[in-house]
Every structure is written in C-alpha cells, then in structure tokens.
Amino acid sequence: MVRTFRPRSRSRRAAPLMALAAASALLIAGCSSGSGGKKAEEAAEGAAAGRANTPRMKVALVTHQAPGDTFWDIVRKGAEAAADKDNVELVYSADPNAGNQANLVQNAIDQKVDGIAVTLAKPDAMKDVIAKAEQAGIPVVGLNSGTDEWRDLGLLSFFGQDESVAGEALGKKLNETGAKHAVCVIHEQGNIGLESRCAGMAKTFEGESQTLNVNGTDMPSVKSTITAKLKQDSSIDEVVTLGAPFAMTAVQSVADAGSEAKIATFDMNKELTDAIQGGDIEFAVDQQPYLQGYLAVDSLWLYKNNGNYSGGGEQPVLTGPAFVDESNVDTVGRYAAKGTR
After folding, report:
1. Residue 181: what pLDDT?
2. Span of the secretion signal (predicted)?
3. What is the DSSP letter of 65?
4. Helices 270-278 and 329-338 sit at what angle, rounded to 10 degrees?
C-alpha cells in the first residue's frame, strides 16, 4: 500500500501557536547571516506553506508526451502537487520519440538528480539508460506505461493501470452496450500500452473488432482517417479511442461520415466529461493520471527519506481502470474541472 502523508486538521486553538512558531522561525532566519540564514528562512517558509521539513531533493519526470496531448497535463499537475508538498524540485521533460526520451533521461543523470520517474511506452529504447541511472545510484520508478516490463528493467516501483486488463474490461462493457463492430484507434504506433488496450478489447469483445493506426500528432489527419474508415464500412457501430482529445475528434468524424457509431474512450479531461454529460461520448475508462504523477514523485521522496517502496518491488500499484459514464459523470466531472481526474 502506498503511504502518503496528509496534513491533519488543526483546531482554532492551535492556529495562534503555529503563527507564533512561524514568526519565531522567520525572526531567527533574519538574525542569521550567510547561507545558513538563507536555509533557515527557506525552511521557515516551507513549514508555513505546509511543505515537508526535509532536505531539498531534485526529481526528474520524463514522459513520452506528444505535443498537445492534454492527458499529460494532468499527470504533471499531480507530480507538481507532490513535489510542492515534499519540498522537491521537479524537472519535467518529454518527447514522443523513444530515442529522444532516452536522451532526456541521460540529461537527468548528468544533472545528478535524486530520483527519476519515467514512462515506458517503448521499453527496449529505455533499457540501457535506465541501467545507467541505477549504476549512478539514482532510484527510478515507472508510471503509466510499462506494467509488464518495469520489473525486468529493475525499477523500484510502478504506478498505473494494467493496460491488458483495462482493454478486457472495455470489451466486456461493449458487450453489455450491444456493440457489434468496433474499431480501436491507436494514435501512436509502436506504443505497447496502446496496443495492449486494443488487444485486451479484442480478447473479450464478442463482436467484430479491428485496429486503426492514426498520426496522433496531426489532429486533422486523425479526423480524416477516422471519417474515411467510417464511410468505407458502415457496419462499424463503435469507435474506441485511446485518449480524450482523440475521442472529441472522433465525435466530429462520426458527424462528417453520417455514421450512427457510438464513441467510447480511454482517459478523460474536462471537455470529455462534458461530452459524456451531453451524450456525445458513451463512456470513458479512467486510469487517474493525476494520481500516477503524484504517487511517482511521492514514492521517490518516501524512498529517500524513509527507505519505503511501494508494491513490495514485485507488484504494480494500480490506479485504474474505472468506468465513467452517465451514472457517475456528474461526480467525477467536478474533479475533472479542477484537472485532478
């Protein structure tokens, strides 16, 4: 089980004492000189803000985010929240090209960071550089992509969903909704997590299923490719996308093609929850990206300061899947509006 530290509620009586303590700390900092005074002042400011009173550490979060993919904004927001709480300097970088992502990890090693959180969309490209990080004594955790590979690469922990299991759950859901012919849209060819979702869906879906590769970095191309597919085969009654922005584009494609296909998707954002409420999207599979970013950074703080590690080094910490549809979207939508789901 992941251990996270939450601030306890404080009584009104305790508030003046806290204010006095903070003021005293600032007074001491003001009377000090040199770097020692600066450190004391920073510690007092951190305590007043509710941050951990532990030595400042530096963590690199390196993902395979493509430009414009809002999913990763939610991951990053969770990581930043944990970093702020834990007195961590967070360095975020991303590149959808696996070789470039590996170079970003190498940059983090060269900066001598205290920990690295990394996605493993294409684990073979990351293997060597992760080994270098471990040789340098830098703990590495995985998140989002790489549920089946993180142990082999020697990572400390992993936070995300089992993509095959999530895909199987979606396939069963489509059986319940009565879908007969589904097309699963892969927006990044070669991404093992996305491919596992479609394969899992095909495993449990009782109807006909096929995959459609699109260029996820070119949304007009995504739209035209899905539209063409729907015009080509009018028997398709379900479009399954693997990210919220692509689901919203699929809505336009269905309209342009004059199709009656329904749309289901993995992952969410505020626009998508609005679309579920409005009936344009049937349902979404939520893996809680905010939680993935938060837990990844927090786990590195816990390991450095307490020697804690999550999942026993053998099991991933699962953050999904969960379904969001018309029955619960009003509740989930409140959190999506804040960017935390």
Report:
1. 98
2. 1-29
3. P
4. 150
